[in-house]
Amino acid sequence: MRRVAVVGAGMTPFAEHFALGIGDLLPMAFAECAASVDKGLRVADIDAAWFGALRTTDGSGILAESLGLAELPVTHIENSCATGNDAVRNALYAIASGAVDVALVIGADKLRETAQKDMLREWESMTRHRAWDYELGLFAPAGYALHVNRYLHESHATREHLAMVAVKNHRHGARNPKVRLPFEITMEQALQAPMVADPFRVYDCAPQSDGAAALVLAAEEVVDRYTDAPVWVRGVGLGLDSVMLQHRPDLTTFPATVRAARRAFTMAGLGPGDIDVAEVHDYFTGIELMSYEDLGFAERFEGYKLLETGATAVGGALPVNPSGGLKTKGHPPGATGIAQCVELFEQLRGTAVNQVDGARIGLAHNLGGPTSVSAITILEGPGR
Amino acid sequence: MRRVAVVGAGMTPFAEHFALGIGDLLPMAFAECAASVDKGLRVADIDAAWFGALRTTDGSGILAESLGLAELPVTHIENSCATGNDAVRNALYAIASGAVDVALVIGADKLRETAQKDMLREWESMTRHRAWDYELGLFAPAGYALHVNRYLHESHATREHLAMVAVKNHRHGARNPKVRLPFEITMEQALQAPMVADPFRVYDCAPQSDGAAALVLAAEEVVDRYTDAPVWVRGVGLGLDSVMLQHRPDLTTFPATVRAARRAFTMAGLGPGDIDVAEVHDYFTGIELMSYEDLGFAERFEGYKLLETGATAVGGALPVNPSGGLKTKGHPPGATGIAQCVELFEQLRGTAVNQVDGARIGLAHNLGGPTSVSAITILEGPGR
Fold it and tell me: Bridge-partner residues for B373, per DSSP?
């Protein structure tokens, strides 16, 4: 399999873009991405695109049309909250096969628009098994809360550890101009905020945002045309699990993440100890905490220690969500995983807002569907 | 790029499956597909799946769950009416890259269900540019009718040639137990049927059906485990075009098809003259006629001659839609392109209902979105 590198990356702010449609956000992300390509990108060089979106927003054609690239072959990828990193995976396979030399991976979703909010509700009902899950109210906060409540019951972790995730990611996000909630919060604010779905209070939940993000991937044979500082895609992995909760023997782990991580690490020839920086799917604070263990960053039920020691804060041994995470950016699913890779691209090239010193290998992680799908990308920077 | 073969293929009848959901249709198609694998298929051998569906019907997880394969990594592919053959394309890239040895390509849609029909209308509005197309009434029959009317105006083709497509495909479909409309029609019936959208009368239009179809693809290194009569994937191609009609300089050709065909033929190292049998996207009769030219089977404006000489009927030089086509099967978009490949798998192995004598190379063609995306797969049989 020939090697594939990220040679450009860009994103819009994740925000309430009331006045902008998908067709506006896509060119914004693409423009920043193209501008980041060190030696320049000719759009005619792009052989094919993979477009991540929660659902068909205007068909794959609108991507090509909004970018002025009506001849570009575009595939729409949808994989719930893991859409972004699965789009990276599919583009990587196409390049690795030799069929494509340069690929655009781009994603966008617009959740704040009223019409889209109605669609979101419909989508929520469709991604859950109609037999009973959704009728019982298991939309995202409630479904995840079941897992995190059980986790808090079985482990030594407490609500204070959930709050520590929120405080950390808000501290990171406060310096990132791309996030929707760019402010710090205190432990007290987190612990006393209004309840959403026990144990999640307001600051345990990510906001709803609109946004787009884009990457340019290139085959090893042509990387030199675009940059002398490529970020190599070392591994990709997709993992699934049962949709229905009655098929889950253990609520305190997400097998989808475990499977995706095993595949990505195997492909990369790396292990959790090799990761210098990670963007982890903190749609809810407890999911970041539990994912430390599923990703192999901590032993079972010991994830909270990474928070107590500050290991996962910028300045610690394994900074997690230096971008501010979904917690402060929000979560337009088609864009989220790609935006994680945008942050890693900058981290691994030494240009991030909250730069992790010496970061060489990064990991991006999505979990969704509701908790039945995970996609992971492992990137390696040029070394500095 | 290592070679990839189809080693199994199966489908449900395309019909009004009022009592069956997506979760029922998927295992039916998979069971027939698995049973068609000559030396047997162990489901544990499947490394990953690509699931084609018009829209998220129950999330990719439900595919794995309905097949009892909760650990199977599944990517949901959506590309309008070209979804099926684009799912084949993405699975092929994954195998060709070396990342996957055995892949399931499966697709399903359920259009007859009332709720889905509401969703279909919403989806129609979303795949057209919101600026004006849909508000002007350019849903599928009307949009395609603009093209075909202009084509009839500029060429020597007539409404009788459209009717000849319908009569031919109904003659083929009458013998195929998988089609929804298994009866023959006369020229008079076709020409005197009620008008839908001028020039399309009822028999110029495909019916709405529910259905699922599945393929098993395998890398050349492992093909022998499954069959001694593999059907090789020689070429895949995806082509796009502007979504909006005002960007089309010529309504009498579909550039998306021309681009997809160029890519697929180039990859295959073959040309239109090498094709022995084809399944062409006859969502409307005029689209099959126009596609003869876009696919290179006929010179510009001379497609009608293939109908007059009977070349595209079974028994002719280049039989098109021996299955009965979308015209008699209907068009559940996630399944349609995959079902075309199911027909070709049987044709190229000599087991089809309307067998084309000596068929060695086949082509499957989708066009949609509304006319802005095309996906093509070229298959080569084992020779007999």
Answer: B240, B368
